[in-house]
Predict the 3D structure of the following.
Amino acid sequence: MSGASVELRDLTLSYGARRAVDGVSARIGEAEMVALLGPNGAGKSTLLRAVSGSGGGLATGGARQTGQVLIDDVPLDEYDGASLARMVAVVPGQTRAAFPLRVEELVALGRIPHEHPLLGPRAADRAVIDAAIERVGITNLRGRDVRELSLGERQLAVLAMAVAQAPRLLLLDEPTVHLDLRHQVAVMELLRDLAIRDGVTVLAVMHDINLAAHFFGRLLLLYQGRLVADGSPSDVLTPERIRAVYGVDPALVTVAR
Amino acid sequence: MSTSVVAGRPALARPAWLDWLRHRPIWLALAGLLALAIVAAAGVVFGSVAIAPGDTLAILGHRLLGLPVTQTWPASAETIVVELRLPRVLMALAVGGALSLAGVALQGLLRNPLADPYVLGTASGAALGAAIALLIPVQFALLGFGLIHVLAFAGALGAVAVVYRVSRLGGLSSLSSVLLTGYAIGSLLAAGLAITMYLSGQNLRQIFFYLLGSFSLASWPQVAVGLPIIVLGSAVLLTRARSLNALLLGEETAAHLGLDVRRERLVLLAAASLVTAAAVAMAGLIGFVGLVVPHVVRLVAGPNARALLPLSAIWGAAFLAMADLLARIPGELPVGVITGVIGAPFFLLVLRRYRGGYEL
């Protein structure tokens, strides 16, 4: 299984007169690991929602879109929701279960796009679920209620669900926010492992520049909806640019070169 | 991942056998079917008129299976068993199963543990329809159905249709606005009901009796018309397990799991409303079944709709047939009183025992 490519062609998303994303073009190759950076309100999450697809018409949250998103060189709106879900997994910023839900039951939800619509998950699906739980390292949490977990544990469980979905493209909205250092590293290492071993294309909105610079080979820097830099961490995170975009002293930010 | 900091309250111990059952829902289904069979049999055998169980059995064998049994029972006994008790038990089973399925569907769709089959206006719509029917001097009866059934059915569906349109549930409106719209429309209809009851004078008691729910007027023609509607709607709901599972984490995640959220909203709502309207038209407003049964089943079997839907249907059917049996032993109490009297304390007990369950 190989990753899916993503291409943004002059993508613009506007809420009324305000352009949340303004003419962004970029191509992300198979198995690439790319972070979307930028200050609050730069349009990172809006862009991610546009890439995550029109499934059910909910994804872009009412933003008007011009330009195109292509996945594997096919315009996004030519996919139906079901086939898109077999290819793209989305890890949202927040996950709340409506009812008490165990970790193994949560992870099993990742098989919904693949399982038989009426008969449900079969032995092969169950094997994938078990493998995902083991790979993420949460076997000890299997029977626990998701809502009793710490934030870090819960994020790992949600990631295991995404792994069970067996996607070719993984989209994540701030996957490490609120996590302690150990869980931040655990999440990042899992993403890197998915990209390297499984060839999954990873596109993540990241709030933590240091973490992004350390683990991602390529950064897209957004500012006021525009793509202001695209390249390796050392190319993108120059002191002048950090000062201009984030408005802070770059001495606070260290970049691994 | 060897060490982990556990946040939140310590988990209350669940008995080991409950964990065992959670992974083997088939046993819960078999136990439910057994309970259902026992309750249904008791519902045919017992009643306010004493008929020997042997006679009941002989009557059923004679009438249903065509066995050549010599008639040793009075004709009135045959009428009671075949024309009164049998359709009554069938209807209680069907209504109990249908209300429980509708509860599962609406709790899952609205992601709200307080949702029940009546949450989007069906109850007040049906009540208003029934009350208006009692005010209209023209009466007719076709196949055991009077104006009251027709208007209750229409009122229930009409109320949901209004909520659906006003809240733009077919679009992408937030679900809390749908719930609030349902509440507002329900209050408006309740005001209409109050006026109608005020105007109705001596019919007040009849309306009141209807609102509490009863199977005392069940008949074969009613079963023949109502049962197909309930079976059809229930069958649709039973196929929605995948949708309800996808909706566990919200509509956006459901969409990302490949669900056509707009279509599923419509399918779930239409099927749940249809069975609820049919149930209300036949038996009046029977509370608590559609709220409690899904919760209790969920606490035992977990939230997976592939188990939750069929188990709720089976246990809901058994529960309501039992409640109806209890309702007629003292001589025709409204069955809604029984479901409330049994359901509410039992629900509280279960919630106390296995808390760590719901965040409202």
About this structure: Chain A has a mean pLDDT of 90. Chain A is about 35% helix and 25% strand. The radius of gyration of chain A is 18 Å. Chain A touches chain B through 53 residues (CB under 8 Å).
